[in-house]
Request: fold
Amino acid sequence: MALATLALTVSCSSGGDTTTATPEAPTTFADVDAAIQARVDDTHLPGAALLVARDGRELRRRGYGSYDPTTVVPIASASKWLTAATLMTLVDEGRLSLDDPVSAYLPEFDGASGKATIRQLLSHTSGIGQDDCIWEKGISLDACVDEVASSGVERQPGTSFSYGNTSFSVAGRVIEVVTGISFEDAFEARIADPVGMSSTRFDGSSYKTAANPVPAASGESSLDDYGRFVLMLSNRGEIDGRRVLSEQSVLEMEKDQVAGIDTRGDSAVRTTGIPTYGLGVWRDVVTADDASVISSGNGAYGFYPWVDRARNAYGLLLVYDTRGSDRAVPTSQALVHQVWAALDTETGAPGGPPTTVYGR
Reply:
């Protein structure tokens, strides 16, 4: 991965040694365009799209192949960032706390599972195991979560990190109970509508079920839509003069929620090379004192949105690459790292303390 003029320490695996990047030549946006087009051509993708903005100025907003900024694709685990944000609107309103136990809202969870907190649901530390009912389109989210509750926990809450999808279905059901409306309606009312995401759904054409959406993974969106979301987050919760989330909630999602837990054995950590996680979001770049610099919501098909606090930037690489997450995610990650390098080449490197960049 090219990092051009970045003065960064790069960790190329979740627990491995660090090396200093010394590329032969600075990376430019022309190089990025060529690399994305090569991916489209070499892997026979229908297209791709890229959004990059810094200091309020769009530097790239374009499609490649047959895609344009309005093309809608499945976003897989980039859904998690949307779900976490939806829940954080309830935290802002004082209707729940991240440290409330699940049993306070879903009494069917008892024993160890009932002691898992809302925070742990969103950070893959709840100990709740995976359940295939989240993919069953013939049942309701309510019924599925009842089934999850009956299974108890696989690990004691707060003791381990196990990346998955089921705990987000539990979080989605908490949202339904607190708001009194469906998860999809809550997402639309609290995030999609105020942000201006007219094409983003969890029960759309790529995953057709209104009864049992998958808050962790069934979302679909476009470059323009999800770009509005990361713009709002980059602005610390505001967009077009409207506050959607408090600054505190935005930054809480970016904080390290797995400190003290060894995450290196997790399969998703091995795929991403990122050992640190927030609430529904990976922490790609951090400072020595563990402050988040770049957060991303990458998904299994290579959809890769990010917010960059060091450069006052944000962006999104949109692809729909079905070769498997172990190939699609690292390929997108390498391209996004090239984008960061191009930003430094063409608009200047960020100041601030040295940082560690995670990835493969």
Observations:
- Residues 1-23 have pLDDT under 50 and may be disordered.
- The domain at 9-13+21-358 is CATH 3.40.710.10 (Beta-lactamase).
- DSSP finds eleven helices and 13 strands in the chain.
- The first strand starts at residue 9 and ends at 11.
